[in-house]
Structure formats: structure tokens, C-alpha cells
Specification:
Elements: H1 20-23, H2 31-36, H3 59-63
Amino acid sequence: MNDRAFRFPSDFRWGTATSAHQCEGLLANNDWAAWEAIPGNITDGTDSNRGCQWWKGRYEEDFDPCQVK
């Protein structure tokens, strides 16, 4: 493990981003869903139709302080 710490400038601005396709699921009317539907683009044929189920309670995992390392 590297013992060096990363240092960011004092004016560094942190940000986050997400997308409805990732979080909500069941969104078939977008470019990503269309790309997933093309045979061969995803080797095992899975899709992100269900999303990560954030709105069905999985958001609690994201905010669980025990998950922070």
C-alpha cells in the first residue's frame, strides 16, 4: 500500500453525478437502452433494465456510514 497522501488544492471543488438510467431502471427510451438491445454488445446478454434499485431502498447502502472506508 502506498503511504503517500493525496492533497488537493484548497479551492478544489468536489462533485458527484449519476443518471436516471443507472438509478431508476425501467427506462427503455434512451440511447443506452437502445445500445444494450443490440445483440452482441453485451456478451452475456444482460441489461441494466432494473437499474441499481436506488429508489427501492438501496440508497440506504450508499449512506450507511459503516460502508465508508
